[in-house]
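Repro:
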Amino acid sequence: MVPFGMLILLAVAAGTFVSYVLWPTWKIAPSLLSPPEIPVTVADVLFNVPTAAVRTAVQRQPGPHERIDLAFLWPSLMPPLLAAGETGPAVEVANSATATLTHASDRLFVTITALGSVPPPAERLQSIYPQYVEEQAIAGPDGLAILPFRAGTPYNGEDLVYFATNPDQFFARCTRDLGVMPGTCIHERTIGAAEVTLRFPRGWLVDWRSVAGGFDRLLSTLRPRADDGHQRMDAR
């Protein structure tokens, strides 16, 4: 019986060792399904987007997309889950308005879509917005000018905020604070035929120069580097 018992113990030990050796392979396999970045194209423009920043599960696939919705922490510009030390994909958020209110102080929301037939942001600034604004602007923080849109226009309740001496350097459309609901701003840029819309709390405009610089850094990380074998196209 003693030799028989020893054989059983050896068999159990061997099985445990084999299971231990093979177990890491089982753990690694799911991570292959969620790479740190995925290459996507919007309007034939290539972007490398962090998987953890993509807000909806259906968009966490490489290849062409009609639009991509992303979220980043401010000012670190890290995806929310990566900043928290997690490696899984971002939690899907169905209602962007609710998400903006929930994380109003530290979230930057980014949407990439095809520009299509919509005039580019610079053209809107020069030829469309002037048709709907008031005649007199008021001074804002650090050289900004705030020009309210007239009531009854498509932009009723919003302000056009821009760098007074060089509007092309920075401008945004912002809603006003309404009770407990803080105002939000959208800043738009084009990359090729794609339009990038950045949504952020109006309160960030106090340090708008840092905000504009952060946008520059973020867009540079979303575009593939030249040494990746892809043609680089700078945002304008």
